[in-house]
Design goal:
about 0% strand; DNA-bd_HTH_TetR-type_CS (chains A, B); homodimer; repressor (chains A, B); DNA-binding (chains A, B); HTH_TetR (chains A, B); about 220 residues
């Protein structure tokens, strides 16, 4: 029991250190040795938990997805919000949470790796739309998301939100980013998914601008 | 000079044979030996022109892109069509041309390869939007494409047309495909890019349905 707790504790410390270092130095520039130095841990102590740097990032991603998944479950249970308000809360958690944005930033370099990129695109076209879909279906029921395209909206929110809006794939300064998000808002409104109201537009611009390479965000 | 002509002729024969075999048997199942047998050519005779099967496909892609590029240049020159009509003609050439669809079909298997997939996504986010952009700018000028989002429309036509509409990435039967295209039409209308009229919607449904795995298209 004590051993079990210690095991989980070490794993948690490795993940916390890695998340911080990936965000500070970037994924590519962080070495396993940096994490060992940070924690005063031996190589064997780390490899007992994670086979590679990629395995650490995979676990951070899984944890992140677990957070979204839990938030989604909590939102679905609430009876004081419409489905549209719940969908907005989910999008806000993605564009507005510093922890989440730190993790996204730490992934940007890794997305240049074809295998990692392809795996992400697959996730964005399958599991992520499923979670949007459940909220959109609730919105069709309660009338807050009056769309004839629930599946298409779920796919597009996932694909466009995670890929098209990202300044690493489609370079943008702040003005470009605001126009891009207003364009998406207009299109989603047209298919009966009015998730981007003025408040969410401005929060999304702010959050996504923070993901730009330093120079571009500053010059914008 | 005679040698030069012979060289080009052999290259053309290899490409024609490969295009046909890739379309008939699929890219993965076509071997270099199949192409040699088809042409009665020696291994050395082929490797003199192409280093690998991938190199043959790259050249087919480049040729295909050259066709689109030439069509775009021709369309830009014409003064008997609005820019919107020109954009429609460009989309029709992509969803309606048997040669083009054969090539796309031959690529579907290869898109499972992360390196090839990543290269395609990069092309769809950079060079392809540029060609759409020139026509959309003309449409803003002549009033036929009254959009405030010319760059965004160019990126979305490219990304959604080549990725989201493809049944290999987002599985769909004929009904799904028609709903997906109508959804895209509604969104593009909303941002002032009314490229999908009823005629184009039906042609796109037909063309993209032909890209489905046999069983799904038949059962739909």
């Amino acid at each position: 029991m004590a051993h079990h707790t210690h095991h989980e504790d070490t794993e948690r410390r490795i993940l916390d250190s890695a998340r911080r270092l990936f965000a500070e130095k970037g994924y590519e520039k962080t070495s396993i040795q940096d994490i060992l130095n940070d924690l005063g841990l031996s190589k064997g102590g780390l490899y007992h938990h994670f086979k590679s740097k990629e395995a650490i990032l995979d676990q951070l991603n899984a944890d992140e997805w677990a957070v979204t998944s839990r938030l989604l479950d909590e939102l679905i249970e609430r009876d004081d919000m419409s489905a549209l308000e719940k969908l907005r809360a989910l999008v806000i958690s993605a564009v507005d949470a510093p922890d989440h944005l730190d993790l996204v930033r730490s992934q940007l370099a890794l997305l240049k790796d074809p295998a990692f990129f392809t795996a992400n695109m697959r996730f964005w076209s399958t599991r992520l739309p499923e979670s949007f879909r459940s909220l959109i279906d609730m919105g069709v029921q309660d009338g807050s998301i009056p769309t004839a395209y629930p599946e298409e909206a779920a796919q597009l929110l996932s694909l466009l939100g995670n890929y098209w809006l990202m300044p690493c794939f489609y370079p943008a300064d702040r003005t470009d980013m605001e126009r891009r998000i207003r364009c998406l808002a207009t299109m989603l409104d047209a298919i009966g998914v009015p998730v981007f109201d003025e408040t969410l537009i401005l929060r999304a611009v702010k959050g996504l601008t923070a993901l730009m390479p330093e120079g571009e965000a500053a010059s914008a």
